[in-house]
Write a structure and sequence with these properties.
The protein has two domains: 28-96, 2-Layer Sandwich (60s Ribosomal Protein L30, Chain: A); 104-269, Alpha/beta knot (3-Layer(aba) Sandwich), CATH 3.40.1280.10. 33% of the residues lie in helices and 18% in strands. The protein has nine helices and eleven strands. It has 270 residues and is of the alpha/beta class. The chain has a seven-stranded parallel β-sheet, sandwiched between helices. A four-stranded mixed β-sheet has the order 1-4-2-3. GO terms for molecular function: RNA binding; RNA methyltransferase activity.
Length: 270
């Protein structure tokens, strides 16, 4: 559910300055060779920062391996890297992920093989770390089989996210996908209905016609502007949470808890 009163911490109206990002609780790797070795060792990384304009062969290899592993890369000036660490970074800084990501196709195949109706949660540009942690906690409590996030434009899964999730991020699989449009197409081709939670919907979540049983993927939008139009038009079902107050918007973590509870309620009633 969109929350139009929320300002995206990365994309809000404040001027952009090269300040220390709130990722200091994540394990850092710096230097071209150490990052390359970590990638070869199969370490899961949250993000890699590379010096803009560098032509170093190791940097190019890091870029290729990161793209194969769907690890976000940012090309930044030297000032940005100096803000991240005072050590000799050699034009490269990376943060190791607090969790390991899971392949979505394998999870979907495994669920169907077990005769289970998948209940997935797809998050479009949820950038606030604590919101993400709270959503993960909701998802685990309500029986969601996996959370799907984009490789770019998503909250970094760090110590704050783990803490806010109350440990749920250690229990529920998280899938990081390169292209959510392709991901939604894959889910639909796999027989999973995409249910968008949006205030743009005509149907209320409480309407008798709203069916959240069977294989479904619940799609939630960003804190600032909701679900992207290109994803919204790919939804099989659009629902909104009925409200009678004057604000007419909910925090996305609260909205996710409401729709996931309704999905759980309907599934248990079958």
């Amino acid at each position: 559910m969109e929350n139009r009163n929320y300002r995206d911490r990365e994309g809000g109206g404040k001027p952009r300055h090269y300040t220390q990002p709130k990722v200091d609780k994540m394990e850092m790797v710096f230097g071209l060779r150490p990052i390359l070795e970590a990638l070869h060792a199969g370490k899961t990384m949250e993000k890699i920062y590379l010096l803009k304009g560098t032509k170093h062969s190791i940097s190019q290899e890091i870029t290729e391996l990161a793209r194969e592993a769907q690890i976000p890369i940012s090309l930044v000036p030297n000032e940005k890297l100096d803000q991240l660490t005072r050590k000799n970074h050699q034009g490269a800084v990376a943060y190791l992920s607090a969790i390991s990501y899971s392949p979505l196709d394998e999870i979907v195949a495994s669920l169907f093989e077990k005769g289970k109706d998948p209940l997935l949660l797809v998050l479009d540009r949820i950038t606030d770390v604590r919101n993400f942690g709270a959503i993960a906690r909701n998802a685990e409590c309500m029986g969601v089989d996996a959370i799907v996030i984009p490789s770019r434009g998503a909250a970094q899964i760090n110590a704050d996210a783990l803490k806010t999730s109350a440990g749920a991020l250690n229990l529920i699989p998280v899938c990081r996908e390169q292209n959510l449009k392709d991901t939604l197409h894959f889910l639909k081709q796999s027989g999973i209905r995409v249910v968008a939670c949006t205030e743009k919907a005509d149907d209320n979540l409480t309407d008798a016609a709203v069916d959240l049983t069977g294989p479904i993927a619940v799609l939630m939008g960003s804190e600032e502007d909701g679900i992207s139009p290109e994803y919204l038009k790919r939804a099989d079902v659009r629902v909104k949470i009925p409200m009678i107050g004057q604000v007419q918007s909910l925090n996305v973590s609260v909205a996710s808890g409401i729709i996931l509870y309704e999905a759980l309620r309907q599934r248990k009633a079958e």
